[in-house]
Design goal:
The complex is a heterodimer. Chain A is of the alpha+beta class. Chain A has helices at 2-12, 29-41, 59-72; strands at residues 15-24, 45-49, 54-58. Chain B starts with a strand and ends with a helix. Chain B is of the alpha+beta class. Classes of the chains: A alpha+beta, B alpha+beta.
Chain lengths: 77, 66
């Protein structure tokens, strides 16, 4: 029975769903890096891909990153 | 200049991801296929995805037991 429970738990853990926001369409590599580093400093990046210039932040992280975009990249979002 | 789109990040192993891709053929909910183990989906589809994936995994387990 314990094996079955372990197996069941394993399956439960095979899928994780997180609410958040995907950032994409960066104009340049520095824009991407600045924003990603900023988001990372708040520990809110759940996934990122440097070659595609994409990253995903938590909903809370989005509030912080959005403010930063408004200040640092005029005309952003 | 930079786009931010809300969604749900699904993190899973490649086998589960394949199940989700198959589900998406019937009902479109994938916003973006990110990589081997990550997909961005629309928020209202998460319950359905979890339910269907669970169902599929259980079905496979029973098949092995048979």
């Amino acid at each position: 029975v314990s094996d079955q429970i372990r197996l069941w738990e394993l399956e439960k853990n095979r899928l994780k769903a997180d609410d958040g926001v995907l950032y994409e369409d960066f104009r340049s590599q520095p824009d991407y890096e600045i924003l990603l580093n900023y988001a990372n400093s708040y520990d809110c990046v759940l996934w990122s891909n440097d070659s595609k210039r994409l990253f995903f932040v938590t909903l809370q992280g989005h509030q912080i990153v959005r403010e930063f975009v408004k200040r640092r990249l005029p005309g952003g979002t | 200049m930079v786009k931010a789109s809300k969604g749900i990040l699904i993190s899973c192993d490649p086998a589960v991801k394949q199940i989700i891709l198959n589900l998406n053929d019937r009902k479109r909910f994938i916003i973006q296929d990110l990589d081997l183990q990550h997909i961005l989906v629309s928020p209202d589809s998460v319950q359905t995805i979890k339910f269907e994936v669970e169902k599929e995994l259980e079905r496979n387990t029973f098949q092995i037991l048979d």
